[in-house]
Amino acid sequence: MQNLSKTLAIVLACAVNTNALSSISQTHGPHACHGVSSSLQAPNTTVVLTEVHHQNGTSFPLVDQVSSCGGPNELANITANLCRLVVNVTTSRSSSVQVEAWLPDDWNERFLATGGGGIGGCIDYPTIQNGASLGFASFGTNGGHNGSEGSDFFLNQPEVLKDFGYRAIHVEAGVGKEIVRAYYGRAPKHNYYAGCSTGGRQAFQSALLYPEDFDGVLAGSPGVDWLRIVSSKGILARRIGWPNIHSTSYVREEQWKAIVEAQINILDPLDGVKDGIIDDPTMYRFDPEILACGAGVLNGSVCLQPAQIDSVRSAYEPIADSTGKIVYPPFELGANTDVFSKNINTTTGKPELSYTILEDYFRGAVYNSTAWTPSNFTTKDMDFATDINPGQVNTGGTDLSAFRAKGGKLIAYHGRNDESVTSALSAWHFSGVQASLNASLSEMHEFYRLFYIPGMHHCSGGPGAWNIGQTWPLAEGTRDSRHNLLLALVEWVEEGRKPDSVIGTKFKNDYVADGVESQRTHCVYPRKSVWDGKGDTSRASSWMCT
Ligand SMILES: *[C@@H]1O[C@H](CO)[C@@H](O)[C@H](O)[C@H]1NC(C)=O
Ligand SMILES: *[C@@H]1O[C@H](CO)[C@@H](O)[C@H](O)[C@H]1NC(C)=O
Ligand SMILES: *[C@@H]1O[C@H](CO)[C@@H](O)[C@H](O)[C@H]1NC(C)=O
Ligand SMILES: *[C@@H]1O[C@H](CO)[C@@H](O)[C@H](O)[C@H]1NC(C)=O
Ligand SMILES: *[C@@H]1O[C@H](CO)[C@@H](O)[C@H](O)[C@H]1NC(C)=O
Ligand SMILES: *[C@@H]1O[C@H](CO)[C@@H](O)[C@H](O)[C@H]1NC(C)=O
Ligand SMILES: *[C@@H]1O[C@H](CO)[C@@H](O)[C@H](O)[C@H]1NC(C)=O
Ligand SMILES: *[C@@H]1O[C@H](CO)[C@@H](O)[C@H](O)[C@H]1NC(C)=O
Ligand SMILES: *[C@@H]1O[C@H](CO)[C@@H](O)[C@H](O)[C@H]1NC(C)=O
Ligand SMILES: *[C@@H]1O[C@H](CO)[C@@H](O)[C@H](O)[C@H]1NC(C)=O
User: In ligand 6, which atom is closest to the CA atom of 155?
Assistant: First the structure.
């Protein structure tokens, strides 16, 4: 009986909602979609494309997408009945930013902007798809150039560098809100941003430079100090002997696999749970001497010779600039080292970094030369890049006072098994902002909260319970504020409920359809999730924040 009345209450609630929605839908829908170009009031903006997608659950090819972003045959997934709009915004005489909108019929009156990854140049469709499925008017941008590989788009193009550096997200926010107004007939009630990696860099930069753009900002694995992150890959590769791949100090790729495996075997149990996850790798120091040939930990084909021990030791040291000041934290223990150790072209056998962003960006943006290679990379190159700061890409800084003063909320998250952006950087940045604002921890937590996710790789993936609603597809069970950080941010902004923890989910084989493997409670920094010592470690309730 009680169940029946609950069901009735839900049916009634739905009926009320539907009525409210049908009155809204008179102002939008297919006709309005094609009509946006005539009502849109935005400077320097041309509508390139309008498409109505009323086949929720189906997909369509991204015919204009360049190959390094996934190519023209990649399918975008329609996650709601929606209007898709693409606009071209001229940002200078030699640059333009592409902005794409997915406008669901069933709009939740919220605006969601997204950023880029790596060297930019691709629209973040996964986040847009998820956003639209939750009812957000969802936007993406190419960041001012098309493609995530190569240097041509940056070469001798200072204005394109500015779009990537600091301008594109602000343009997306400005034009995006106008598109919402033109299509739905009114402004969004709340404005959000979500991005990871480079998108996380753009998140912090937006809060810093354009504090009015968003009410809530979600910054994943943030690439703050982007130029040093990119440089670190070259510096670490050089520390292990690259490009002299036949020297005695060079450490081979298969040796790194064994080194990282040994780190996990030794360090993982120290946090009390043996699960292949080093909860907090910054707590430990690691002496590679124990992996020496003869020590008995690694076998004869992968053990370390004396010169290699020195290489490995230096690979886990922090990075200092030319003046000796430490500017970048040590590489994560237990994380895949591919970004600096997978550096021989398997076709040619020649030294070549598989991490292409270093060469691409330094050729196009820093040295203006397609002949440049990272073979001789040193801290001088890193310092040169930060000195010239192409397109203001590294204009970070820690003074978030304006964003804080207007009531903005920022959530950052970072995997503790990040192979690309060392997770300690997020704690550094948190402390930097705290020092800038001279704020107590509880004052910081009024507007800025950081969540570390043990066992998560860069942005997603890894052995940990990493799914917090940040990847496509958005699984059933990750569409509420307990399991989804974007929705936790919404609740914080709109209802004032501060997120103290979030439940991460690990799906079997990282495949949603295979079902849940485990869940874990992740805690607001500096608190950590610790096993209660008795419960099933695959259940979130067995983990406490301390
Ligand atoms: C659309 O969904 C398919 C199947 O899940 C996936 O392979 C593809 O990458 C998705 N497209 C985008 C742009 O996320
Ligand atoms: C779209 O389809 C998915 C399943 O394919 C469903 O869960 C969702 O509720 C649908 N959304 C809308 C707005 O119809
Ligand atoms: C976008 O704008 C730029 C600069 O004004 C122009 O060169 C480009 O052709 C435009 N693209 C489209 C599709 O309109
Ligand atoms: C419009 O484009 C011009 C250059 O073409 C630029 O100077 C101006 O700042 C742009 N306006 C806006 C609002 O972006
Ligand atoms: C990016 O690609 C789109 C779609 O083909 C095109 O309209 C736009 O002009 C391109 N932008 C740049 C900067 O090349
Ligand atoms: C980049 O190099 C080209 C020639 O290689 C030169 O014409 C151009 O002026 C250079 N641009 C900058 C910004 O130095
Ligand atoms: C040595 O150890 C590595 C890494 O554990 C393993 O892949 C390899 O098969 C081992 N080789 C021998 C000869 O046991
Ligand atoms: C390796 O070298 C070949 C030949 O120069 C090149 O085509 C390829 O892109 C390089 N990279 C990889 C990852 O194979
Ligand atoms: C790197 O340095 C070595 C030795 O100093 C030099 O022989 C080589 O030409 C340099 N390579 C590049 C690509 O500059
Ligand atoms: C920082 O805040 C503390 C406590 O509110 C205050 O005593 C101190 O003077 C402040 N320091 C600066 C440099 O503003």
Answer: 1
